Amino acid sequence: MGPVPLPGEGGRAPAVRAMFDRIAPTYDLLNRVMTLRVDQLWRRKMIRALELRSGQVLLDLCAGTMDVAAEARRRVPGLRVIGADFSLPMLARGAGKTGLPAAQADALALPFGGARFDAATVAFGMRNLDSLARGLSELARVIRPGGKLGVLEFFRSESAGSRLVHGAYNRLALPVLGRVLSPDPEAYRYLVESMERFASRPEFEEACRQAGFSAVRGQTLFPGVCGLVLATRQA
Known about the structure:
Helix content is 46%, strand content 21%. The chain has 235 residues and is α/β, with parallel strands linked by helices. The protein has a single domain (13-233), classed as Rossmann fold, CATH 3.40.50.150.
């Protein structure tokens, strides 16, 4: 298996999808170990911040094994949730785990009508897209005016200090974890390098505004590692 193309390199989708297909059986375990289970707290924080209500419809895009979808339904029992992802093995595991509806879908050409959803979430999936601008434009298309977007992501750090600490963890600890927990070490090279090549949080926030979102605000959840961005679809 050759290197998986990184953000900014063209024609990434087939290789990235194949990588996620391969690591689907160990994906949940890897998330928990690499983040010391803090990823679950980050997802809960995003769901709380969206202030979802019973009867609304939520799109969990780049849903993976649908942890966000499951958390949203636990928190808001009457919420209608649809998970969508381009990796069928990941999505099949998520649908089996949660019992929620799911659709295999390309995030750059979503198979949903305009203004279909009251809100959308993306957890650690935006940096996997071939085009950040197109992905955000599709989200803006399918979210109703006034609807909300929540994004959790590993943004590129802008601080020299956090880049140093984060880089040391990425280069030393993650490869070891990858070899121990997964038969696909290439996935860990991609994880590390895609974080370092993706947009910073301020750059991502500006991309959201350009795509048609307002009231864009961001928060650092773990310095140099994870950020949360919330936005509202403009009327």
